[in-house]
Design brief:
The chain is mainly beta. The protein is built from no helices and 8 strands. The protein has one domain. 23% of the residues are buried.
């Protein structure tokens, strides 16, 4: 079953440096309008990504311990992939997760607008 989140940004900052640019975004992840996690996104554009008009992408979802009953401590899931600068779409896969979400490692994800779907 797919996990579908609506991302509600609280910050979105862009910073250029000598090697390219960083874009940092963070906020809340909702499921059915209920806040279930917080998220942080880092996008990196460099000389290695400009030719394809894309950025490297890291996404981490942080789930409160109370929302993942039966697991010890805060649970999280990290996604890696690419951000298409022209279309604004993001794709990749789940690369790491704590025990409550380990079954999702290797699954693909996509983001269009503020909808993040893990298949």
């Amino acid at each position: 079953m797919a996990l579908v989140f609506t991302l509600v940004p609280a910050c979105n900052n862009n910073m250029a440096d000598g090697a390219g640019a960083w874009a940092i975004e963070g906020g809340q992840a909702l499921q059915n309008k209920v806040h279930v996690a917080d998220y942080s996104i880092v996008r990196r554009t460099s000389c290695g990504t400009k030719a394809q008009n894309t950025s490297m992408l890291w996404v981490t979802l942080f789930f409160p311990a109370a929302s993942t009953a039966g697991t010890a401590g805060q649970q999280n899931m990290t996604l890696h992939g690419a951000h298409d600068l022209a279309a604004g779409q993001e794709t990749g896969s789940v690369s790491a997760a704590t025990p409550a979400f380990a079954a999702h490692i290797g699954k693909s994800f996509s983001r269009t607008g503020n909808t993040l779907t893990i298949n």
